[in-house]
Design goal:
The structure holds 3 protein chains of 3 kinds. Helices cover 70% and strands 0% of the residues of chain A. Chain A has 10 helices and no strands. In chain A, helix 2 packs across helix 3. Chain B is an alpha+beta fold. Chain B is built from 6 helices and 6 strands. Chain B has a 6-stranded antiparallel sheet with strand order 1-2-6-5-4-3, with helices on both faces. Chain B starts with a helix and ends in a 23-residue tail after the last helix. Chain C has 4 helices and no strands. By secondary structure, chain C is mainly α. The chains are: A mainly alpha, B alpha+beta, C mainly alpha. Chains in contact: A-B, A-C, B-C.
């Protein structure tokens, strides 16, 4: 079984590389949700996320020829989005531009979502360092395994693992009072 | 406490009408040397034509766009210069003074002056008032590695500015005296 | 130990649920597509032109020129419309950015005022 051969977006990528703009449109549509979500949760405001999403796809224009498969494209998009977001957060670390709570409505539109939980998770994410935030998002939003995260962020595997461990511990502590009984020991 | 301080400032500023000398638009230097040294610089010049064009591309059905549109209505220009440096003291006080000296002209009044010992961030907010209405706003923010000048020209409705809260992270400055002060956060 | 594992699993599944990708605004998606597809860098040289350059047939060049002339007016109008839209979106973006910087600096002042008033209150209550 060959996943790469089965990916219909590989054909679209080939067409886009040869100048077919419609194919480029298909690729943008296919990947914009992932890029935007990553940007939104990294940066916390819709405006910044939209700016970053646009920058990433504009950068893709100049790099299309160096990308050889849809899988490679997805990797490239995650990598560029994460790195650019981390850079932005480093520059603006002191002042949170908009509290994530204020943006909570952005995250509550999805079907079956729990707005309270999303808001809480967002607030907790905002407390993490940019790198730790990127690691968590790649793990739980993008469903990458630690080695893939390490490659995406160009980070040692052990660092990825320790970010995951520490962040989860911190999140578990901070959500202990909020999460329902499943997380708690039996009542006294 | 801050509610009263800022409300008092606004109340005191309202009668200060003699601003005609220089107008609310500041003459911001090009800062070409600083732009070269800066690791990140933001230069935004939004003139009336651009404001009109931007307003046409704001979606009235979107709450954030609608609030922004409301604020733009009556504005004549927004000018921003912001420079971020990799090292401390990359810019001189003279750079800031070139702008600050213009704010001593009649009509301009300092609304807020903050000096943070923790972040070493100094922020001065000036406002120009005509017939009880703000017609110009200037912000000078200087930090060890960053300095920013914002100049907003036009009929700045403080109520509308207040509406900006939560949309771009604008904090509650308690400038609206018609509302009771929010309860203190614990 | 089992008590340790259960919350870990719980938080991980909750993270996955909470961090499901979100869909951008439709208006933004359209704007994004328009910008990416209009950007000259996006337009890699189509193979068609590459082939044409080496083709020696003069009549083909003439036909191309004629076709270009016929299309010119339409294309010009279309591009003008696109440019107008680009300028509008650019203006919107600049305004948003300007307001964002403004809000950031107001926030800085607010934080300083808040911390000053907090320390004053602390001093008063301490006294």
């Amino acid at each position: 079984m060959n996943d790469a051969a089965a990916d219909p977006l590989d054909d679209e990528l080939a067409k886009a590389r040869s100048g077919e703009r419609a194919a480029l449109g298909v690729l943008v549509r296919a990947h914009q949700r992932s890029v935007y979500s990553l940007a939104l949760r990294m940066l916390g405001t819709r405006d910044l996320a939209e700016d970053l999403t646009q920058e990433v796809f504009m950068q893709l224009n100049g790099n299309l020829r160096s990308i050889d498969s849809n899988r490679h494209l997805h990797f490239w998009l995650r990598q560029v989005t994460s790195n650019r977001a981390i850079d932005q957060l480093r520059r603006r670390a002191r002042v949170p531009l908009t509290s994530l709570e204020e943006e909570s409505e952005l995250f509550s539109q999805e079907e079956g979502s729990d707005p309270m939980l999303q808001r809480h998770m967002q607030a907790l994410l905002a407390e993490l360092s940019p790198q730790a935030r990127a690691v968590l998002l790649l793990r739980y939003q993008e469903d990458l395994d630690p080695p893939e995260i390490a490659r995406t962020l160009d980070m040692p595997l052990n660092t990825v693992k320790s970010h995951l461990k520490r962040s989860l511990e911190s999140m578990r502590e901070k959500t202990a009072g909020m999460l329902p009984a499943r997380c708690e020991d039996s009542p006294p | 406490m801050r509610k009263y301080t800022l409300t008092l400032c606004i109340a005191l500023l309202a009668p200060a009408l003699s601003w005609a000398a220089s107008g609310p638009k500041l003459n911001i230097p090009s800062f070409a040397g600083l732009a070269q040294k800066a690791s990140d610089s933001v230069t935004i010049t939004v003139d009336p034509a651009m404001l009109g064009m931007a307003a046409r591309f704001l979606d009235s059905n979107d709450p954030q766009d609608a609030a922004t549109k409301d604020i733009l209505n009556g504005l004549q220009g927004i000018y921003v210069r912001s420079y971020t440096f990799d090292h401390d003291s990359a810019y001189s006080q003279a750079d800031i003074d070139a702008v600050r000296s213009q704010l001593t002209a009649p009509g301009w009044n300092r609304l807020v002056e903050t000096r943070s010992r923790k972040t070493h961030a100094d922020v001065d907010i000036y406002i120009m008032v005509d017939q009880g209405k703000a017609v110009g706003l200037a912000i000078i923010a200087s930090e060890p590695r960053e300095f920013t000048i914002v100049n907003i020209v036009g009929a700045i409705d403080l109520d509308k500015l207040h509406k900006l809260e939560g949309k771009f992270g604008v904090p509650k400055l308690d400038i609206d005296t018609s509302k009771p002060a929010p309860p203190p956060k614990k | 130990m089992s008590q340790d594992i259960e919350p870990r699993d719980d938080i991980e599944s909750r993270m996955r649920t909470a961090l499901r990708p979100v869909t951008p605004r439709q208006a933004f998606s359209q704007e994004l597509l328009a910008r990416v597809l209009v950007d000259p860098a996006a337009q890699s040289k189509p193979r068609f032109f590459a082939a044409t350059r080496v083709r020696p047939l003069a009549w083909w060049l003439t036909a191309s020129l004629a076709a270009s002339l016929v299309l010119a007016v339409g294309v010009h109008q279309h591009l003008q419309q696109q440019r107008l839209q680009q300028s509008g979106l650019e203006a919107r973006r600049e305004v948003m950015k300007a307001l964002r910087v403004t809000s950031e600096k107001l926030n800085l002042a607010y934080e300083a005022v808040k911390s000053q008033s907090t320390s004053l209150q602390d001093e008063e209550s301490g006294a």
